[in-house]
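Table S2 (continued). Query chain:
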Amino acid sequence: MSLTHTIRTPPQPPAGRVPALDLPPAFEAFYRLHHAPYLAYAEAHLDNHLATIAVRGAFGDLATHWSHILSRINPTAEAWDHFTRWLGSRTRPLPLDAGFGLQYQAVVLYHIAGYPITATAEATGQDPSKIRYLLRCWDSRTQGTTWHTDASVPAPHA
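Corresponding output:
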């Protein structure tokens, strides 16, 4: 009689290959809806290549916290807050004199990335009237023009 046990090792993927992950359908839908504005926000803070890498990492982080995000009253706003905290810990803010986080984020999406108010509201999980109010309270005339030099950014529209 033998007192040793044989432990079978599960089959491993071929060297250099990462196993595919099955993501929840709700996360995949969220990704499709929000990838573009998240990338635009990141591109305001980083060059295109680094922004792409950062957004990929941020969505990976969102996926790991997905069950918590879905448990919140407003999952879209929770995901946006999580994303902006994640990105903010890795980048510097732009020299905008915005009162607080959401106002800064709305200004970046609307004035720099060129997203309309409704799309800015959808990305941040806020009501369009709140975004409109935050943008109206922000006085762009006091900001100077050093932070926005790209003439190809479309004029914002409500």
